Amino acid sequence: MRARRTYGLHSYQMKTAAAILVELGKPLEIAELEVPALRAGQVLVEIAFAGICHTQLSEARGERGADPFLPHCLGHEATGSVLEIGPGVVKVKTGDQVVLSWIKDTGADIPGSVYRWGERDVNAGAITTFQRHAVVSENRLTPLPQELGMKTAVLLGCALPTGMGAVVNTAAATASESIAIFGAGGVGLCAILGAVAMECAPIVAVDPNPRRRELASAAGATHTIDPTQTDPVAAIAELIPPRADIAIEATGIPSVMAQALDAVRPRGGRAVIIGNARRGEQLVLDPRAFNDGKRLLGCWGGDTVPSRDLPRFADLIATGRVDVQPLLSPPVALRQINEALSDLESGRVGRPFLDLSLA
Ligand SMILES: [Zn+2]
């Protein structure tokens, strides 16, 4: 039993290091936080690896609008080990290795926690991961598929379920269907892996960044298009006449979402929108696309149900049917998080990772 301290309503059990967002548009700060005692349905996890995705970048840069929760913890994709479970938790036990995901699964759905930083409160959602220890809601945890290591499995927290799920679940792709993927960041690369797993052909990746086009080819794209050099919709129409069976949008740019719909064939072509637009942006579409029988689909985390889908996705990786190596850049230490965010912003790295064991 750890010593408990109390401030007002909250009691605290231990200290940990975390990268927290104090002010929009400013670098994250590394802080020593006091970890709150567990409530019913919560789990204390020692984080091993955490992925950094565009959601946290846009949060940190203030692109998601006013943030009433500052200062707060961040991150929604990780792996780790269970240190302690709160009352009523049955899904995991102390010592279990787990995947942490923002996508809700079975188990108690417990809202966020409040950490203590000196004299200040620091807010956290039901899952946060840019820290050595985190209090997580039971329904954001799934047992780690045993065939994957903690480092590879971190992708199961957000990128793979979202990107692969958009192809496998939302678009329900079948073998030999053609597919165009707009955006080859972490999620777009995972959509390419989903297309490989479903044996789609051809697999066309569109991205202005040459490094990301290289990664797309390594992940299994059969063709790549630089949208700054050629109209991607015309290029897709020429490559896959009349157009693609499926398009996946993973950029968050509304004009690209419109291109995704434009890029699918009449009568049954489907476009899936994954990217998060900046707050206040609007999407303009030609409504005749719908009269042509095209379908525009949204998705929530690739419509993934973690306890159902993560073992399937892990099996695809473990058996070598998809190659996640292009996504796995060398992990960095927590103190390097601001460089990692810049690497993500510049496209130098498809998906940066933190190794929380590094000093
Ligand atoms: Zn994410």
Q: What would you note in describing this structure?
A:
This protein has 359 residues and is α/β, with parallel strands linked by helices. The protein folds into two domains: 8-157 and 329-355, Quinone Oxidoreductase, Chain A, domain 1, CATH 3.90.180.10; 159-303, 3-Layer(aba) Sandwich (Rossmann fold), CATH 3.40.50. It is built from ten helices and 17 strands. The protein has helices at residues 54-61, 150-153, 159-170, 186-197, 210-219, 232-239, 254-262, 288-291, 306-318, 337-346, and strands spanning 5-7, 10-20, 29-36, 42-51, 77-85, 97-101, 113-117, 120-124, 133-137, 141-143, 179-182, 203-206, 223-225, 246-249, 270-273, 295-298, 353-355. Strands 4, 5, 6, 9, 10 and 17 form a six-stranded antiparallel β-sheet that branches. The protein has a six-stranded parallel β-sheet with strand order 13-12-11-14-15-16, with helices on both faces. It is globular and about 65 Å long. The two termini are 26 Å apart. Zinc ion is lined by residues 53, 55, 76-77, 158.
How many alpha or pi helices? Answer: 10
The CATH topology assignment of the largest domain is Quinone Oxidoreductase, Chain A, domain 1
Query: What is the ordering of alpha helices and beta strands?
Result: EEEEHEEEEEEHHEHEHEHEHEHEHHE
Question: What would you report as the Rg, rounded to the nearest angstrom?
Answer: 21 Å
Q: What is the average of the pLDDT values?
A: 95
Strand proportion, as a percent range, falls in 25-35%
Low-confidence stretches: none
Looking at CATH, the homologous superfamily of the largest domain is Medium-chain alcohol dehydrogenases, catalytic domain
Distance between the termini: 26 Å
The CATH architecture of the largest domain can be given as Alpha-Beta Complex
Biggest β-sheet strands, sense, barrel: 6 strands, antiparallel
Q: Are any ligands bound, and if so which?
A: zinc ion
Number of domains: 2
Secondary structure: number of strands: 17
Helix content: 25-40%
Q: In the CATH hierarchy, what is the class of the largest domain?
A: Alpha Beta
Tell me, what's the shape? Answer: globular
Q: What structural class do helix, strand and pairing data support?
A: alpha/beta
